[in-house]
Write a structure and sequence with these properties.
This protein is mainly β and 270 residues long. It has two domains: 59 residues, SH3 type barrels (Roll); 200 residues, Fumarylacetoacetase-like, C-terminal domain (Fumarylacetoacetate hydrolase, domain 2, Alpha-Beta Complex), CATH 3.90.850.10.
Length: 270
């Protein structure tokens, strides 16, 4: 099931997306959004009578974490190598504030403080319930679903600051979307699903989730051993090689096989 968050010009609403993805990860003209009563993370799936065509709504970030976004660094060996970093012995965690989250079609704002802002296409995991100290074999029990992320990074500030907070925490630096797919589990990604990033239509990243150093159950176990995870928290699972800079007026599209695609434009922050 694909869970979206959308607006028709009024208050944000949750809905279920109908229709099938084509080979390019796009929905056909028959796709619809059926509205839901309340947040399905808390009240479950309660369908309403309202139904819309996709061109009648604006999709928003499918989840707005009330607590945190947990990023995982250097979880693809080739990406670690391209930035002259070692693969960590255990998952390398950092946090992005929930104010960094934007949705599909929203603008990534290029901050004045940086001269090098990079795209990092990723698979993201959405947590479905309060949990702590989750064993890897029970990770599926706490996963609500999966979505697409762009872990936007001010690379020069990451190097100068050493720690990642400012470089990855600017407003608009965590695009998520276009929806949450709930009918998958970690095994679907261990077998390998493509993660691709296009910059102005040119393919820049072309990786596979099979190449993650630490798989999804291991990440959930590691993160939850350090901090309690809450419903709607998001874990970014790392990016494959091929990261690179974005410029003002660029358009970046991240796709994950089976999840669709997430597109955002870059503008100067005023």
């Amino acid at each position: 099931m694909r869970i979206a968050r959308f607006t028709t010009g009024d208050e944000p609403t949750f809905g279920v997306i109908t229709g099938e993805l084509d080979e390019f990860g796009q929905l056909g003209d028959d796709a619809r959004v059926v509205a839901l009563a309340g947040d399905p993370l808390y009240v479950g799936i309660k369908l309403l009578e309202q139904e819309y065509r996709l061109d009648q709504v604006r999709l928003l970030a499918p989840v707005l974490p009330r607590s945190k976004v947990v990023g995982i660094g250097r979880n693809y060996a080739a990406h670690a190598a391209e930035l002259d970093n070692e693969v960590p012995a255990e998952p390398l965690m950092f946090l992005k504030p929930n104010t960094s989250v934007i949705g599909p079609g929203d603008t990534i704002y290029y901050p004045r403080q940086s001269q090098r802002v990079d795209f990092e296409g990723e698979l993201a995991v959405v947590i479905g319930r309060i949990c702590r100290d989750v064993p890897p074999e029970q990770a599926t029990d706490v996963i609500y679903g999966y979505t697409i992320a762009n872990d936007v990074t001010a690379r020069d500030l990451q190097k100068s600051d050493v720690q990642f907070t400012r470089a990855k925490g600017f407003d608009s630096f965590c695009p998520l979307g276009p929806w949450i797919e709930t009918d998958l589990d970690p095994a679907d990604f261990s077998g390998g699903r493509t993660v691709q990033t296009y910059l102005n239509g040119d393919l820049k990243q072309d990786g596979s989730t099979a190449d993650m150093v630490f798989d999804i159950p291991a990440l959930i176990a590691h993160v939850s051993a350090a901090m309690t995870l809450l419903p709607g928290d998001v874990i970014l699972t790392g990016t494959p090689e091929g990261v690179g800079p974005m410029q003002i007026d660029d358009e970046v599209e991240v796709s994950v096989e089976g999840l669709g695609s997430l597109t955002n434009k870059v503008e100067a922050r005023s």
